[in-house]
């Protein structure tokens, strides 16, 4: 480890802590103290002002309440006082002048008092007189109940403002009898002034309430004088009272029915014109309902309350001279505290200005300090980065054989991963005239492991190869979302769960001209501009290595086409062939039973529906016989231990020895490549599409000869199962799919392409590769 990488965990930078305290904590603390002080003063001022406003509001509402009660009482006094006056005026008139006195009094009062709708006069003999405003004009209508030919009619005289008759009408009275009406019967029963419930007046279709008084004329006949007060007029009167900006008043009778108030026409329409249904609706008159409930419990007075998150002041007062009516007043508290709210708002604005100025000053101070610290940190980071790059380059320079292509380039990928702070760094070489890329080495910092040898082809990811051909560095934040790098992310990056990708070209001189020899890939890198220069140096070293291999990416072994394998540690027996395929030769040597530590298993699966057809099966028998002969020859050539047939499967085994045989997987891999080419050629000559796939695994297995004469050799275990799964899961016909154990054993001398992950029962998740060719 370099000296600059050693860290003392007990060391503490006290100077840095003090600097941060002075740069950030002190200014922020000062602003907070100012904020708390201003907020405390504002809160105290607001509470003091609010308390005074509420007291003033309470007194003001009490004065408003007395004023409204006075006005409403005066409004209703036209009935009570008018009734008393009429009681004396009409009762003392001579009997012959009773009708004239009634009409004269009524006409005068209707012209002077707008809230009065009409006057009634009924007696014990069933006579009835009425004077009211003419609905069609500005005059008055005089009505008298008469009996003509034993039939009751209403005789109407319409008089103008000058008192002259304009027209007269008569209509059927339908046996009308004033003595049966509530205004007459209730008054006779009470023997004093009485009010009736609200009713719809037939002529104007408005709600009225009737106040009536009993009287006895000079002729001794019992009479009742009634006055009709318009509730619509009363509601308009209440709406005209300016209680506050949003305050309203409403009058209810002793049964909770609405007599008059705000929005009276909507209330009448909601009740369908039925006075008995004119009650408070919680949805629209919730505040009045709350005040009325408090009035019924606590009586008249002021009742502050909260409704739907807002503060209200409600007041209830009995109306004198009425039939147990109650006046309700509701006003939002804010209507009377608006000036306090405005004062508080202005105070808040001043406070905000002060806080902003203080914050600006503190921010400028903190910003200047942070900028200085950031520049210092960037300089320190650049110095550390330079030291890191220098140490990495020094380590590369001290590595023997770094320019020799026969030696692995592990130090290069490790240096890029450490300097760039990446999750995975890799070197790729263009081969096969630029139609493929081979991973020379890949270093994963999370697993601290190297990998390599797998191949990607141009026809699988044409757009990605265009990035390499462009010869300029490319950074992709989300490789899976970019159509150029999505295939590379799916085949290479997805298993490592990486997202971002940096592609840096490797350019070298071949035949006197500059060409792209490969690329550098960095996954999940914290890219910085200065990293480009370091990558250029690594790319130059890699270009020298790749140039020594040739533009097609061949090494000495591949160029010569040699398939020489290392010598086996012991003499191997002759191959054994299952009798179901061909006659076996005599096996040389005895094979024991038990666990074999390094068994290589290859499964070849044939899937041709022609072989199952009885009428055409004989036509392919020569082809099958020739394939069997080639398999025998390949097994002897690479000293395989056993070839067994099971249905459409061939199972080839190498390495069934008590001692570990490191050459078993090499020999089986060579046999697989030769067998693949042989089968492809034979099937092509027979004009048959490739109908086979190959799977391989390498590891321990159990086996031995079982039964009596003749003995049968059998092999079982996870290695056999995984080899068969590889054959079944091969992506294309004619491909050789292998497990990660095979890849780890052969990756230095063979080329592979990563396929991703797979799941096997009892084995879990593993990596899968496709064996391409020798290096």
UniProtKB/TrEMBL annotation:
It comes from the Bacteria. The chain crosses the membrane at residues 21-43. One of its GO terms (cellular component) is plasma membrane. Residues 555-578 are annotated as: Disordered. Residues 603-727 form the Guanylate cyclase domain. CDD domains: CHD, PDC2_MCP_like. Gene3D superfamilies: Nucleotide cyclase, PAS domain. Keywords: Cell membrane, Kinase, Membrane, Transferase, Transmembrane, Transmembrane helix. It is a multi-pass membrane protein. GO terms for biological process: cyclic nucleotide biosynthetic process; intracellular signal transduction. Residues 555-567 have a biased composition (Polar residues). It is found in: Cell membrane. One of its GO terms (molecular function) is adenylate cyclase activity. This is Histidine kinase. It comes from Acetobacter estunensis.
């Amino acid at each position: 480890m370099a000296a600059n990488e050693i860290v003392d965990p007990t060391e503490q930078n006290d100077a840095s802590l003090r600097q941060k305290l002075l740069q950030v904590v002190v200014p922020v603390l000062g602003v907070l103290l100012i904020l708390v002080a201003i907020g405390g003063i504002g809160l105290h001022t607001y509470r003091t002002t609010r308390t005074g406003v509420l007291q003033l509001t309470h007194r003001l509402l009490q004065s408003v309440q007395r004023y409204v009660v006075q006005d409403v009482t005066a409004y209703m006094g036209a009935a009570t006082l008018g009734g008393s006056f009429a009681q004396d005026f009409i009762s003392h008139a001579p009997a012959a002048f009773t009708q004239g006195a009634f009409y004269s009094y009524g006409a005068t009062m209707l012209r002077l008092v707008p809230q009065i709708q009409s006057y009634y006069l009924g007696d014990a003999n069933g006579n009835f007189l009425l004077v009211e405003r003419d609905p069609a004009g500005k005059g008055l209508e005089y009505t008298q109940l008469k009996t003509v030919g034993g039939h009751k009619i209403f005789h109407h005289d319409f008089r103008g403002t000058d008192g002259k008759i304009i027209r007269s009408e008569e209509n059927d009275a339908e046996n009308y009898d004033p003595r049966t009406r509530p205004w007459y019967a209730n008054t006779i029963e009470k023997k004093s002034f009485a009010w009736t419930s609200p009713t719809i007046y037939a002529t104007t279709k408005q709600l009225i309430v009737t106040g009536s008084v009993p009287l006895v004329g000079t002729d001794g006949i019992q009479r009742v004088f009634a006055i009709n007060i318009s509730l619509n007029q009363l509601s308009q009167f209440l709406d005209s009272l300016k209680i506050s900006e949003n305050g309203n008043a409403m009058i209810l009778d002793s049964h909770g029915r609405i007599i008059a108030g705000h929005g009276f026409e909507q209330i009448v329409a909601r009740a369908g014109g039925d006075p008995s249904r004119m009650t408070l609706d919680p949805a629209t008159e919730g505040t009045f309902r709350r005040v009325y409930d408090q009035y019924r419990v606590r009586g008249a007075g002021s009742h502050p309350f909260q409704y739907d998150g807002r503060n209200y002041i409600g007041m209830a007062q009995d109306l004198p001279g009425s039939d147990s009516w109650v006046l309700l007043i509701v006003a939002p508290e804010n209507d009377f505290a608006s000036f306090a709210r405005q004062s508080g708002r202005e105070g808040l604005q001043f406070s905000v200005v002060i806080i902003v100025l203080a914050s600006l000053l503190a921010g400028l101070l903190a910003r200047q300090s942070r900028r200085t610290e950031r520049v210092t940190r960037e300089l320190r980071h650049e110095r550390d980065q330079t030291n890191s790059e220098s140490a990495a380059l020094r380590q590369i320079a001290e590595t023997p054989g770094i320019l020799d292509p026969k030696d692995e380039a592990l130090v290069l990928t490790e240096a890029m991963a450490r300097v760039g702070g990446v999750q995975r760094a890799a070197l790729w070489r263009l081969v096969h005239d630029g139609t493929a890329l081979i991973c020379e080495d890949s270093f994963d910092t999370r697993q601290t492991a190297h990998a390599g040898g797998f191949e990607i082809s141009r026809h699988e990811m044409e757009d990605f190869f265009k990035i390499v051909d462009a010869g300029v560095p490319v950074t992709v934040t989300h490789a899976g979302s970019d159509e150029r790098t999505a295939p590379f992310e799916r085949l290479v990056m997805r298993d490592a769960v990486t997202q971002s990708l940096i592609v840096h070209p490797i350019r070298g001189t071949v035949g006197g001209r500059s060409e792209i020899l490969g690329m550098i890939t960095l996954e999940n890198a914290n890219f910085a501009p200065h990293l480009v220069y370091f990558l250029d140096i690594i790319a130059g070293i890699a270009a020298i290595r790749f140039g020594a291999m040739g533009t097609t990416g061949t090494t000495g072994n591949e160029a010569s086409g040699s398939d020489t394998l290392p010598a086996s540690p012991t003499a191997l027996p002759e191959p054994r062939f299952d009798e179901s395929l061909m006659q076996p030769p005599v096996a040389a040597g005895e094979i024991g039973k038990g666990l074999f530590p390094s068994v290589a298993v290859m499964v070849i699966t044939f899937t041709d529906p022609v072989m199952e057809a009885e009428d055409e099966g004989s036509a392919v028998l020569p082809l099958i016989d020739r394939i069997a002969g080639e398999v025998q020859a390949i097994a002897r050539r690479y000293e395989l231990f056993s070839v067994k047939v099971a249905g459409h499967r061939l199972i080839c085994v190498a390495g069934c020895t008590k001692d570990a045989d490191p050459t078993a997987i090499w020999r089986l891999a060579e046999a697989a490549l030769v067998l693949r080419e042989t089968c492809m050629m034979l099937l092509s000559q027979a004009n048959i599409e490739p109908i086979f796939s190959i799977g391989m695994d390498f590891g321990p297995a159990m086996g031995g000869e079982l039964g009596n004469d003749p003995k049968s050799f059998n092999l079982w275990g996870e290695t056999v199962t995984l080899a068969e799964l590889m054959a079944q899961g091969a992506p294309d016909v004619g491909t050789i799919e292998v497990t990660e154990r095979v890849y780890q054993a052969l990756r230095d001398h063979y080329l592979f392409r990563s396929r991703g992950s797979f799941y096997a029962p009892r084995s879990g998740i593993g990596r899968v590769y496709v064996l391409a060719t020798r290096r």
